Amino acid sequence: MGIANRHRGEISARFDGCDYRLCLTLGALAELESAFGETDMAALATRFEGGRLSASDAIAIIGAGLRGAGHDIDDAEVGTMRSDGGAAGSFGVVVRLLEATFGDAADSGEVAGAGTNDAAAPGEVGSGVRPFRGTT
Questions:
Q1: How many CB atoms neighbour CB 7 within 10 A?
Q2: Model pLDDT, residue 74
Q3: Domains in the chain: how many in total?
Q4: Domain, as residue range, for 38
Q5: 124 close to 101: Cβ distance less than 8 angstroms
Q6: Pick from 60, 78, 118, 136: CA 20 to 30 A from residue 91's CA?
Q7: For residue 55, how many other CB atoms are within 10 A of its CB?
Q8: For residue 132, is it within any domain?
């Protein structure tokens, strides 16, 4: 798998006892725009700012992150994968992946709970998540 490089927006996660690298590349973000019916990255950011994600949202984000890092895994398979920490662990992967992808916001403290493991309850990205500076 190799070591995840946070400076490239990569994270590591463990599913079904195997280590994976995830990365939301531009292609993966375009995939999410399409999956969520958003017209651009600002609209996608606004969606994440709401702070609440469904299990389907988490599957789409994790799947896009896995494919962005080069894994040939479809969303149906992602939906059956078990994360360390159960559902809460999966949502933690989503939070870490969004923080790594939109690093400016995380580094400036604009992403709720950046750098903590208990930032948001399962299903919540955190209040005030702002992937892009200046978004509301």
A1: 8
A2: 97
A3: 1
A4: 20-107
A5: no
A6: 136
A7: 13
A8: no
How many residues are listed for the chain in this entry? 136
Start-to-end CA span in the chain (Å): 36
Classify residue 70: in a domain, yes or no. yes
Domain presence at residue 11: no
Residue entry with tokens 């999956």: 35
Q: What is the DSSP letter of 81?
A: P
Q: Amino acid identity, residue 122?
A: P
How many CB atoms lie under 10 A from the CB of residue 100? Answer: 21
- In a domain, residue 76? The reply is yes
Q: What is the pLDDT of residues 2-59, one digit of tens each?
A: 677 777 889 999 999 999 999 999 999 999 999 999 998 888 878 887 778 899 999 9
pLDDT, tens only, 55-82: 999 999 999 999 999 999 999 999 999 9
pTM over 0.85: no
Q: Hunting for tokens 């490089």 — which residue is that?
A: 5
